[in-house]
Write a structure and sequence with these properties.
549 residues, 7-stranded parallel sheet, alpha/beta, globular, 22 helices
Length: 549
């Protein structure tokens, strides 16, 4: 036993980090490349080793022996052999399947499989049964280049990552300069460097995870400057399109007529084109009958940015599967997906190249310090019977629409008088009730894009101090002066949504920020609130708990 060591490595592959050990911070730095933070209460933090966390680490150059060595260095006790066997088994799968160019056929790729057992599995499944591959020899198989992404998805579902060593296709050049006033932060430069790598096959694609408010758009612009090719930027909504265009004009000398907006309002395809996921997958050109993707597909793109890549909708995985030869970057504050499809983001967009804890950037002043509060309040007596006989979604809705929340909103608005406040919720009828009581402007899915932009701009200019927003404001909205968010209802137990909503107030500012979530006690909403808060707890945030009578 090593008394002062901070780690307890358990047989289920969870790792307990004792924060009171003098070596806690050093050990944490050693394990974060290959272990994901699960929870972080005051005294002991829990990490977990998973297939994906190992593959992310190995893709960044960390070997299995080094991973085991770090655990042995910091563990109080001997490590269960099942843990080291798991690391060896799963870790060494990375590199067993390698895709490279086919020197004999430019329309094909060669899959090399090193281990005989895996060769037999590939032969049985993908050659004989599914006719997906052709045999070249015992260890090599030929794959149609067009099925590259589809094959990688199939393999990740089977628990095997494919190492893609196909050189990226250089797109049409785009020469531009960055603004002299742009002063990138150290972590933004590190993130881009991790993406670009050494320029060899296997680099130039991946996902960068940074907190909301930390300047992910700047990372995207720096990456554009590193590659300097025609670029497609895919974002969640039209407000985000306009935000990207503003930032491109602010930080680069790219002429405005070389930046296109492809949306329901405009149909511009330019050397830099900003569009939405929905536009890329869901519409056809009325004149030609082509899908938007087909319109894009024939052009010389060299770089694609998936903004808020964690919300890549299911149909977009098909799009991402086809765009495997293009330099690509995924940007997100959290790779959490409630449907568990993080592995597909890993294999299609690229492995996680860079990540940093939110609290670390807050401590350095790069994002605002935020305090999280959960306020529990009783259910109105007139709703108790209906709640008692309702189940699941219906019961949750009754709890979420608790009218007692209006009184708490009144109290919080008085407490934060003079500050910029966002009131955000899931249910439109609830938001309209709040609007009727307080008279604040409201943004929902039914609000026109022009009206949304107008209200956001008035909020930025402090012409209005409080804005009511539905879930349309969860993502990619820059409201730098917002310092208070009041969440009146949410999408069940969505950790992703909780993180994004806190992110609306994390832009750096000279004051602390407050995130309030209003919850009906002794109800399903209380249960889901705990699940929603998990990701933020992993990042080091804690919630104060208050009760109202």
């Amino acid at each position: 036993m090593k008394e002062n060591n901070p780690l307890l490595v358990q047989s289920d592959r969870t790792i307990l980090l004792d924060l009171y050990s003098p070596f806690a911070e050093e050990a944490r730095r050693d394990i974060v490349p290959f272990a994901e933070l699960v929870k972080s209460p005051e005294h002991v933090h829990t990490y977990a080793i998973s297939d994906l966390s190992l593959w992310n680490a190995i893709s960044a150059g960390l070997g299995c022996d080094e991973i085991v060595g770090r655990l042995e260095k910091w563990s109080k006790y001997d490590i269960d052999p099942r843990v080291t066997m798991y690391i060896d088994d799963i870790g060494r799968r990375y590199g067993e399947f390698v895709l490279e160019e086919d020197s004999d056929d430019p329309e094909s790729l060669i899959l090399t499989v090193t281990r005989r057992l895996f060769q037999l599995q590939i032969r049985s499944r993908f050659v004989e049964r599914e006719k997906f591959l052709e045999i070249v020899d015992d260890s090599r198989f030929r794959l149609d280049r067009k099925r590259r992404g589809e094959f990688k998805i199939r393999m990740i579902h089977l628990g095997f990552p494919v190492v893609d060593k196909i050189p990226m296709k250089a797109g049409a050049g785009l020469e531009f300069c960055l603004s002299e006033s742009l002063a990138p932060r150290f972590y933004q430069k590190e993130a881009v460097s991790s993406l670009v790598g050494n320029g060899e096959p296997g680099t130039g694609f991946g996902t960068i995870v940074l907190p909301c408010g930390s300047g992910k758009t700047i990372v995207g612009i720096l990456a554009m400057h590193a590659f300097r090719m025609h670029t497609v930027i895919i974002v969640p909504n039209i407000s985000a399109i306009h935000q990207w265009i503003r930032e491109l004009q602010r930080w680069t000398d790219i002429p405005r007529d070389m930046i296109g907006e492809y949306s329901g309002e405009r149909k511009e395809i330019r050397p830099v084109t900003v569009t939405t996921y929905q536009s890329m997958i869901g519409t056809r050109n009325k004149e030609t009958g082509e899908t938007v993707f087909e319109l894009f597909d024939d052009r010389p793109w060299g770089f694609i940015i998936y903004d808020e890549v964690h919300m890549l909708p299911a149909p977009s995985f098909q799009l991402a599967a086809r765009l495997q030869s293009i330099y690509r970057l995924g940007l997100t504050a959290t790779l959490v997906r409630e449907d568990g499809r993080q592995g597909e983001v890993f294999t299609l967009v690229g492995p996680k190249r860079y990540d940093t804890p939110w609290i670390n950037l807050a401590d350095k002043g790069f994002i605002a310090k935020a305090y999280c509060h959960e306020i529990r309040l009783p259910m109105p007596e007139e709703d108790e019977l209906e709640y008692g006989i309702s189940e699941n979604a219906a019961a949750y809705r009754i709890a979420a629409l608790n009218r007692n929340k209006l009184d708490v909103i009144t109290e919080l608005l008085e407490k934060h008088r003079g500050e910029q406040v966002i009131i955000i919720g899931q249910y439109i009828e609830q938001l309209k009730e709040i609007q009727a009581k307080f008279g604040f402007p409201i943004i929902t899915g039914a609000t026109s894009n022009r009206k949304r932009d107008e209200l956001y701009e008035k909020f930025r200019k402090r012409e209005i101090s409080t804005l009511i927003v539905s879930k349309v404001a969860n993502f990619a909205i820059d409201l730098p002066d917002a310092s208070v968010a009041i969440q009146v209802s949410g999408t069940y137990g969505s950790r992703q949504e909780e993180a994004q909503r806190l992110g609306r107030i994390l832009r750096p500012k000279d004051r602390d920020c407050h995130f309030y979530t209003l919850v009906t006690e002794f109800s399903k909403e209380e249960e889901f609130a705990l699940k929603r808060q998990r990701f933020l707890a992993e990042q080091g945030y804690s919630y104060t708990l208050e009760r109202r009578k």
